[in-house]
């Protein structure tokens, strides 16, 4: 039986739109509802309990829209809240950390894996732990992990400076220690970073595999869905906890095609949750 219900996706802001775009590419017939919690962003500076509370509220909102799956398109929320959402949700929940770790472990040839992310994500150690855990599960030995915080990449992505001299110089400075370490696989562990993948790839060189965690997550979503799922006329809805016009202005470069449009305002903090 065909399930035309939408896939629910949430993020603290607009970075998760890169994950949404990969979901569209992987399952073009699926309807989606995206919620950007822009008024409470960023999650990376919040406590674990606060991120869990926000995530549970976002989950309740998406479930009120009768979604068939929830994708946590936020690294911090994936790190802090995934287990809690998985226990409480009435539908399958997918996060962005594990798929990227799995793809990195399968891609590396020399066992040297680089991870670039925001300072907040690096400080949690969640990606390093995920890669180590997946490597152990796959029987990989002598894995070396090199982490580097690249905070300016977020600002460059949001400014639309995806392929400029400033971006290239910044990338060369950030990525120098990873190149010197000889990593052959680089996890872009922030949802903004794929927008800069052209420059990042050129700086790292042809021999380095870039792992887009959004792409890996979209494949997990595709694998979980029934082959008959979806619609010939998928619907794409957008919500934000901030001003819709502002959201659309900043988000448009992430999606292209004049999207998003028709964004509605909604505050999920109206939902009471217990932790």
Characterise the protein shown here:
With 275 residues, the protein is α/β, with parallel strands linked by helices. Helix 2 packs across helix 3 (75-88), helix 4 packs across helix 6 and helix 8 crosses helix 9 (197-204). The chain has a six-stranded parallel β-sheet, with helices on both faces. The mean pLDDT is 94. Helices cover 46% and strands 16% of the residues. It contains eleven helices and ten strands. The protein has helices at residues 17-26, 48-64, 75-88, 97-107, 119-124, 126-137, 152-159, 165-181, 197-204, 213-224, 244-255; strands at 7-11, 32-36, 69-72, 93-95, 112-117, 144-149, 185-188, 209-212, 236-240, 264-265. The protein folds into two domains: 7-95 and 216-270, Rossmann fold, CATH 3.40.50.1860; 98-213, 3-Layer(aba) Sandwich (Rossmann fold), CATH 3.40.50.
Please give the structural blueprint:
Layout: E1 7-11, H1 17-26, E2 32-36, H2 48-64, E3 69-72, H3 75-88, E4 93-95, H4 97-107, E5 112-117, H5 119-124, H6 126-137, E6 144-149, H7 152-159, H8 165-181, E7 185-188, H9 197-204, E8 209-212, H10 213-224, E9 236-240, H11 244-255, E10 264-265
Helix pairs in contact: 1-10, 2-3, 4-6, 4-10, 8-9
